Amino acid sequence: MSTPIEAARAAFEAMGIDLPPSKGGFEARSPIDGSALHRFEQTSTRDIETIVRLATAAHREWRCAPAPVRGELVRRFGLMLREHKEALGRLVSIETGKILSEGLGEVQEMIDMADFAVGQSRQLHGLTIASERPGHSMRETWQPLGTVLIISAFNFPVAVWAWNACLAIVCGNSIIWKPSEKAMMSAFAVQSLMERAIGEFEAAPKGLAALVNGDAPIGARLVDDPRIALVSATGSSEMGRKVGAAVSARFGRSLLELGGNNAAIVAPSADLDLAVRAILFAAVGTAGQRCTTLRRLIVHESIYDEVIGRLVDLYARLPIGNPLEPSTLVGPLVDRDAYERMRAALTDVAAARGHIHGGERIHLGHEAAFYVRPALVEMPAASGPMTRETFAPILYAVRYSELSEAIAIQNDSAHGLSSSIFSTDVRDAEYFLSAIGSDCGIANVNIGTSGAEIGGAFGGEKATGGGRESGSDAWRGYMRRQTATINYSHALPLAQGVTFDL
Which stretches make up the Aldehyde dehydrogenase domain (predicted)? Predict the structure, then answer.
């Protein structure tokens, strides 16, 4: 098999994209073996000013294009993604360490999002509202918002961008993308494809979509810029607190997709064959580095031993290794920092008298690569390390006796992203989905916490940020609402019966 750098270069060649000269302070590395892939320069202050100025001008022009015309650009971009799915998916896996089927799945998610946005471009509908005044009508419409800044994370380096970018573009906005420093090659490839689509589309103005390379101060500079109407940021809750405060201070708008300490409840009536399979993928997929990763397992005391026994057996047999190998199910952690955070969390587990299955580092001949066996941790109570999100494959398990207790344990988290229950009892499911059930933005029945489809709005509550992206009516977040009242009579009645006559 070729080395990661050889495979990355082959992917760029297959897409017909030329990488810029390898220089600068940001080094793209592959978690597969820790090798350097490419070096990127940080975008200069002067270039950032030019990018924002061009994006502002592009929005003013693009908002005048009919929405279906804007959708045509996204349709053409989606066709390019279809053509290059294999190469781009492989590049994502090389740069993030996720297994190849997940890398390809991420590109498929982009394709699906493009299709959704194209359809949405003909459905940016408002409302007709009854007026209390004779000879008057009211309507609500949605107008393009402005320039949208997209800050994306390493774990889904291209799909989350597509959630935002495809909708923002059909809604008449320009976009600026600041990707994670850990996934700049994937971002460069996608930006190159988007620029190709824009270059082939006469209606698209210069500056409609831009890419900025940089660290946190560069992101902060963009977040503070009053010309940026919406900041859509994906990352940690700590990052979100800073972004949200900075944007609100200038009366801007933010869309935050942050952490998630996600939980699943396994009820006595659960189909255990189905539940265990779903739990396994939710807990160890992407090496536990998803915001929707299952991190807390709450199992009824009557079936606890059987469920844990099955999972311990499966954890011990997980094929861990090079994510490009077809048989691999768990690839590496993204870097040393991720590994150190996992080790620190497991040290806290030992101090809290938790029982750890797995969690050890696996040496595959690359000292700069960090492969681990996912950890299943049996906790004496739902406290301590279990209450904190660690972005690593650690699944904490506790017992419960009553469903109300299980839901209380689940909701006792600073985050509120994803949740699920495994039960064949309709009463359990309806209780879980009721107002006194799960307090998360995503609540699933008989499936895991991860793997959301693009058709539904994605996002969560509390420290998860409250943002919604992707499907349903998430498009409204990229537009401004306008209420209009039209008087088509010759009289001038005032609302609420107010009179004002000289």
Answer: 26-483
